[in-house]
Every structure is written in C-alpha cells, then in structure tokens.
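Bug: token stream looks shifted between consecutive jobs. Job 1:
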Amino acid sequence: MSASAGEHATAVQPREQWTGQVGFILSAIGSAVGLGNIWRFPGVAYENGGGAFIIPYLVALVTAGIPILFLDYALGHRFRGAAPTAFRRLGGGRLKWLESLGWFQVMICFVIALYYTVVIAWAASYFVFSFDLRWGDDTAGFLTGDFLQVGEPGLSFTFVPAVLIPLVLIWLAAIVVLAFGVARGVQRINVIFLPLLVVAFAALVIRSLFLEGAGDGLNALFTPDFAALADPDVWIAAYSQIFFSLSIAFGIMITYASYRKRRSNLTTPGLVVAFANSSFEILAGIGVFATLGFFAFEQGVDVAELEGLTGVGLSFITFPAIVSQMPGGPIFGILFFGSLAMAGFTSLLSVLQVVSAGFQEKFGLSPRQAATRVGIVSMILSVLLFATTSGLIALDTVDNWANNIGIVLSAVLAGVFAFWILGKGPELRYHLNAVSTFRVGGVWTLLAGVLAPIVLGYMLIQRIASLVVEGYGGYPDWYLAVMGWGTVLFFVVAAAVLTGLPWRRSPDSFRPWPPLPERSPRPDAAPSEGGRS
C-alpha cells in the first residue's frame, strides 16, 4: 500500500503537517521546555542529592523518558491522529472503546490549560512590574495580598482585575495562534519564541554567574550527596521530573507526531528533543542557584536556609526579592519573567493543540472553528475558576491531582494496553525502525512496556496513599474531594461521554503505513524502498 493511499484512507481532508523536521523539533522542544524546567528542576535537584541527582535523572531519562517519548511518537505517527483517534485505531476492531483513553488525555490537557494560562498571565504581569519593581520590599505580601488577593479555600466569585485582564489577553493570543493552524500558527510562534527564550535565558544565566555569592549557590546545587542515592524517594523524584518535563503521556507528543509526514525520521529528532530539554533544565539550575547564592550572600545566610526554592514561591516571591537587591535588577527581572512567559506560552499552545485536534477529528471542525469554540469555553472557565480570590488555592490543588494522578494513570494505562493487552509492541517498534535512522531494539520494548508501567504504577500507588492519608496543603477534606478527586472524576466522565458521541467521519477505515509484512519480520527490519513510495 502506498503512502498516498494511506492518506486517502485516513480522511477526506488533507491532514495538517509541519513544514519540515526543524519546525517539528522546535515545536516539540517548545512544548517540553516550560515552567517546570525553570521553577521545578533546580529545587528538585537540590533537595534530592544535589550533583548526585544527575545520576538518577539521567537513568530516568534513558529508561523511561525517551522510551515513552518514542511510544508517543509511534502511536501518533502510525495511526495518524490526535490521542482519541490514535488509541481507537490502536485498539482496532477489538477495543474501539480504547478511544476513551485518548479523551482522558485530552481532558487532562483541557484542565491543565485552564490554570497554566493563569501562571503565564502572572509572569506577564511581573514582566511589567519589573520595570519599576512594583512589588516593593515584601514580595510575599505583594503576591498573596496586593496582586492575587488570596482568600480562603472555596469557590469565590470575587474577581481580581490584575489577574483577569492579562489572563483574557493571553487566552485571546492563544486562540488566534491556534486558529492559524499547525504550520502557520503553532510552528511559527515556536520558531520565533524558542530562540528568543534561549537568548534571554542565556543572558540571565551569564549575568547571574558574575554576582557575589554565585559560587556558593552553584556549590549548593552541584555538591553531590551520594548517600541520597540509597533513598528510593530520590529515584522516584528523578522519574517524576523527567516524566512531567518531557510532555509525555498526555497526548501532546502523540498529536505532534501525527502532523509529521509519512516518511519522517522519528527517533533521532526524539533524542534531540529529549536532550535539549534536559540541557535547558541544567542551564536553568545554574542560573537559578547562582542567583540564590547571591541572595543568600546578601542576607548573610547559607543557601540551605533560604525558603521558596521551587514553584510559585521561587518565581513570584524569592526572585522578585532578589531582583530588588541586585545591581541592574529591573533588567534581570525583565529577562527572567519574559523567559517564564515565553516558555509557558509555547507549552500552553501544545496543550491546547491536543484539545483542538481531538475535537477537530471527532466533530469535523476546522482549526479555526475548534480554536474559537474550545478557546472561548476554556477562557470562560479559566476566568471563573482562577481569576478570583480563590484562584491560587484552586490552581495548587487541581495541578497536583492532574499531574500526579491523571497523567501518571494515563501513562500506566497506555503502556498496559499497548504492550500487555493488545501486544502491539512489535508493530510499534517496527514502525519506529521503518522510518527512523536510529533504530530501537528489544530493550525499548522492555523499557517502555515493562519497566515504565511498573515504576509509574508504584509512583501512582504511593501518591494516592499519601493523598488519602495525609491530605494536601492543609486544605479541608471537602475541598480536596471537590477540587482534587473531583478533577480526576471529571476526566473519567468526560472521556466516557465524548467516546459515546458519534464521529462526523468514521476513523475506522484507516490502514496504517507501512503495512506489516505478511511474514512476521524482525521488529527492527525496515520495509523495502518500494513499500515506502
């Protein structure tokens, strides 16, 4: 079967495509490099063995991150669709309802987009605040009081104008980009923003290295504590960081790979994306801890005595305080919050593209129709839930359940169904090797199909037990039941409902390319050139 025949079987309308390999790689890196690289990795590394953390981090990258990334690429590229389409075609006639796993991933992206956009709006606001250091001397009080006006856990309808206005602007920008489609919208923004991000953040890192006390900060980060390697929690932290950082297992890379041309290299670009993402994380660690070293020096304390080394606290409390004290602080703040906003926006586009693509394929919508309808609904919900005085608490709770329960559960189920129940490992491996220059062997099947589900399953059980027994953040049990477990319940119910709705055009007449040879080949055997015409 020729590639053109396979495309005709896929859909009546031509499928959108990246303009080439560079556009795909930049877009995939733009998705992977996000807020977590800047505000999560440095603190996680510091708290889990410092320099010694690089060992479990690299092990996790090679044994789980890259194998699952390749699995996502294989699913999206072979079955030519967003997550619901890909999983339905993976299940074939036996398990068409596996489409629901794809919708589960779409709903994860939908919810993440609702609050992720808010953080980008905060970063954009702080970018403006950097010009006059508006946060003053009490950065914690400014964030929770003047800026966010944080109230008690609950559902508030008291809107915060300082959050509402930039939030709406970010949503409008995202809708416009998505409406232009994959190549003219998402790819074009990544081609512009990613180089700008690298230049801005590199300038920030170079500046931080010349601050007094920078060496102490770097020593705090990179001095190895090899005893920490005996702690299973350190290894779990490494797998968690890799897993959440690479944008894997919740539909993004499945969707992105589906826009690649039939004869497109998958594994080599995957390695580029994975190591580029990790390189940026290490660069972020250097910049963040060099700056924290300066902050500790100014206060006359050790780096270990500082608070707010990860997440919201690091970005919106600690860093503004540092900017206020350092020479040329406004410029440093502009670079930092500008980088944060750009990294967040490119990742947001990838999350929203998963949702848009799923609805386009299911209901026969154009990119403009899907972007407008999905975007407007998302914007309204985002404003109602996260632009109010209860927004920060809601964000913290929903994010914890979406990431630690939703995404991990999705990854475990994908591995179990693809490898254990359907036995599609050899077919997916064959597909990767048929189109790629870097070929994967049986080790990939072992890592993606056995090790990753087991490790992630253990993480999932551990996290569920912790949330049930200890709760989260000191928030009331009723609030965690509604905003935490309720979020996971929403994923399940929405996935079931969307699976039950009829398709505008049935995706079941599809035939994968390249076809598997009649005789069971070695999974690493490539098709003849005639079969790839």
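Job 2, same session, no restart:
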Amino acid sequence: MTTTRQKLKKSIPQDEEPFRTLKPVEPFSLFSARDIQLFQEGSHDRLYEKFGSHGLTYEGVEGTYFAVWAPNAAFVSVIGDFNGWNQYSHTLYPRWDKSGIWEGFIPHLKDRQLYKYFIRSNSGEELRKGDPFANHWEVRPKTASVTTHLTYKWKDAAWMKKRAAKNSLRSPFSVYEVHLGSWRRPDPENHEVFYSYKEITAMLVPYVKEMGFTHVELMPIMEHPFDGSWGYQLTGFYAPTARYGTPQEFMAMVDAFHHAGIGVILDWVPSHFPYDDHGLYRFDGSHCYEYADMRKGFHPDWNSYVFNYARNEVKSFLLSNALFWLDKFHIDGLRVDAVASMIHLDYSRKAGAWEPNAHGGNENLEAIAFLKELNTTIYSRFPDVQTIAEESTSFYGVSRPVFMGGLGFGMKWMMGWMNDTLDYFKKDPLFRKWYQNQITFSIMYAFSENFMLPLSHDEVVHGKSPLIYKMPGDDWQQFANLRLMYSYMFTHPGTKLLFMGGEFGDTKEWNYKTELGWHLLQHPTHQGLQEFVKAANKLYTGEPALYATQFDANSFEWVHLADHDNSIIVYARKGENGEVILVALNMTPVAHEAYPIGIPWDLNFKEVLNSDEARFYGSGVVNTGILKPVTGRFGKPYDLILRLPPLGAAIFKSRKK
C-alpha cells in the first residue's frame, strides 16, 4: 500500500498540496436515503446513476467512485492494473444501513482503467467479479471491467421529437433483425476479426434505409463472453460489447440510424445469465441474483441461471437496466427475450422438476409482477418507445395494458403464425388444398394481441435450413414461393420482422462465425427477391390500410376462400377512409387468365404490386390498367376479373369511380 501511495503522491502537482492527505479510498456516497428505499422496494429505475464506477471530483481531486451490491460479503475491495491487482490496498466501505452496498472514492483513478471487485464472502470464499454496472469491458476472452464515462453529444433531436409518431402502434413497423458480428466481416474466414461500430454503421445504415425497413433490431449487443451464445448469455448488462468498440461508438451508430429515420430496437435478456466466474452467478458467494432453489433458479434449456424476481434489489437491477438503454442510448424499443420461460414455472421442465406457486398454478407470480412493473415504468418514463415480447404460449393479455390485467407489452411475437405459415409453404403445392386452414387459422386470433409477425434467426439455424430451401420445387418455384410467402406476410395484419439474409434468399443456414452470402446477389434470382422485399416494404409503409389499423379486426375481411382445389385465397385490408387493399394469393404454379372473384364494393382497382413481375424474376403474369367491377354472378353484388400469377400474389388498391 505504501508503494501505491508513493506513486500517487508523485503525480500530484504542487498546487494540490493540501489534498495529499486523501486516503487510498475515501468514504463517499452517491446514494440518498430515498435511493436506498427505492432500491430495496424494487422500484429504483436509475441505479446506473449510482452503482458501478463514476468519474467525479471529491475535495478538489479527480477520481472514481465505486459502488457494488454484495450483501453476503465480509470484505470488498477494488483491484486492477492501477494497484497491481492488490486485494487489500483499496478496500470499500460497507454502508451503515445494512443495504449490502459497498462503496468509496479512489482519488486519481481515471478513465480506461481495468478493474474488478475482490469479494470475500461471509463463508470465507474469495471471488473476483466484474462490475455488474460496468459500462465497458475488456474484449473477450479477457474479463475485466473498464472505467469509462458515457458522455456523448447527441445529434438526433429531430428524431427524438418525432419518434412518438414513428413508434406508434398506428405506424408501420418493418423490422430488420441483425447480428452485428456476422452481417458482414472483414474476413469471412476469420471469426476473431470484426468490423467496428463505425465501420458497420457506414454499411448497415444506408442498406437498411435502401431496403425500406422502418426499424432495425439488434440481437443482444450487451457484453457477453461467448460468441456462440449470440449475445443471449450476458455478463455485462450495462455495456455495449467491446468487440466492436466503445460505448460512444455504439451511441454514434444509434445516432446515425436516427438521422436516417430508422428506429433501433435492442434484444434484451432479463430471463437468465451464465455461470462464468466473473459474472452475476453467486456474486458474493451466495445466490445473490438468482433463485436459491434450482427448480426455479436454473434453466435446463440454456444451462444458465434465472433471476430471482422475488428479490427487490434484483428487480431494481433489471428495471434500471431496461431504462438505462432507453435513457443513455436513445433506444426506441426493447424486444424482451424468453418471456414464456419467465412467466411459466414449468417451462421446459419435467414433472417433479418444478414447484407450483402459492395457488397451485404454473405461473411465476413474481416474474409476472415484475413484467407489469417494467412495462408500466417504461411507458410512463418513455411513452414514445415500444416493448415487444417473445412469448410463445396463449398466456392472456401479453400486449394488453396492465390496468386490464395484461402484462403491458406494446407487441407480442406471433409464433403460431410463423409455425403454421412455414409448415404450409413447405408443402408441395399439389397438396396445399388439403391444408388451407393452416394459412387461414391465424385470423381467428390475430386481433387477440398486438402481434408482430416474426421470421427470425431461430428459423434458420440448427438444421432448420434457410428460408429459400424450406420452399418446395425447382429453383424458380422456390423463389416464387418465397416471394409469395413474403406477400402474405406483408399484407397480413400485424407488424413485421425479417432476419438478415432472408431478404435476398441466403442459401446457407445462419452461422455467427462468418458473414451472409452477399456473393449470391450476382444472380438474378437473388437480386429479384431482394428487389421484391424492397417493394413490399414500400407498399406496407406507404399504404395506411396496411398499418394504421393493423391491430383492428375491422381492418380485415375474407373475400374469397371457397376455391380449395385451386388453393386461391383472397382477402382485403381496409383503411379508415374507405380505401381497400385487395390481396389475391395463388398457392399453386397454375396461372389463371380470367379468374372472377365476388366483391361487395362498387370500386375500381389497380394492381400496385405483383410478386410475378419480371423485375422480381417472375414470369410476368400481371394485371394492367384499371380493373372495373362487373355484375356479380357468385352471390356478391360485383365481380372482379383477375389474372392470377403462378405461385404468386397480385395486390390491388381501390380507386373511386
């Protein structure tokens, strides 16, 4: 300790002579009594302003304040390269109020210093932990936290002013899901080398804008030790991963998206965390963050540990973490991972491997209460963002307000639609007539929640094959089928999400170690598919009938369902001003030249998109000119005579006579 203090003394200028007497760690606190109360009540949503490392000036001396929660600790110190990782030179002080918080100010310690907490538990066990609230970490496989600041001059005031309208449930949401490390790579054969946030921004932002997506969703960018977890096994909940650069460089990426008019959604993982030595697991030698009962505290699917939602301090940690990204990084929405596993005690657990709740049910009442508190807090603090639940069960009211008994999310992934749709399109068109209910069933429950239609990364990994190879037939038919499926997706009620690579028909499963198959765009089939997705985005975002009432049952009407033999389906999306978008899907490779459908409207129609257009590598069976209704012969007032393309969609917009 003497050696360290001597080094510090030498670095103090003569005009700071009065401050030489500062101890290696000064007793200092950023916590008020109110902070402690809220922390222990589980309702503190700004803990990131208190915990972790914070550069500040104390008694005229610059340094760093540290605070960590370790309620089962007998001794806590800060170790790092600044003190030779000495366990005893910089000991933190326990708060007098029995909150379990250890804190103190270390003079002269500035930015970009490596550190950890040395913790001796009450049992005598010694641990070296990263800072749960660190804003920066070493690049894996190294595991130290790094002192840093989050100062950044934002330039997105125009976006922030208008994003309430951009993120409204009455606005289009077409989301491009991205894994930053594998969208593009400097060397596709070297998974250890990444583009920086700045380099990715220069390529990704203009691409997303050109493709017409309204939002980008980033798979977890929080710090994680193992690339193969895709970011879903976090150790640094409060830090953008250092793989691609600094927190400020990530802020600049968000800023650039906002300048381009694109919202940024983050995958957020409040459901579980890994057992890495430097992480949250047994943080102070006890089950600090996780349930002690492994029937609730360990998740067999991911070999990881479940947050203890019954512990108020843990709830404050998670609540603050969600608000942290919205506050400090201007994030526009959170897609909350694995909600089904959070709210069901028996999720992926066999009989006897879980314990019912106090009422004998399988609901995790503490997790449900936490999610309600989470959404209530987010929408009160940031009413212009959205939360989106990945929830795969029929649990009531996931996207309904808390005051109505719901969980309070803005949207919910429509997993049933995804499963049924992919299963239907895998079938040979010859047999689709027997399975038409698969493609129509989703409307039975489409308006029970605010649904987002996801074709996510989960559908193109682990032997499931890429989307293009899920489609039957020869090369031409596979692309026609995929364009047809996208037509159905972009005109079905609900918001949209497409995983990277799906927009141009990547021919290999997603692999986090390499990049997408961009070389495929030299082929007209892949170019055509990419152009079609661009056109589908333009249609969806340009027609209020497709988005303004996307969660309203009155916006949808079946028009023609009786022709099972030809697997032809026609439906309408209706706007608030009487406009009609008519969608005709031909699920077989047999074209129809003069196909009559009965309609109830005395309106003219014009084709606005056809998946069989030549520019999309289709066969060119399109409808030209204005289509006028004729006297009906099939039980409806009027008929409309259509050309239906093979394995194609013809989409029309009404025009007043």
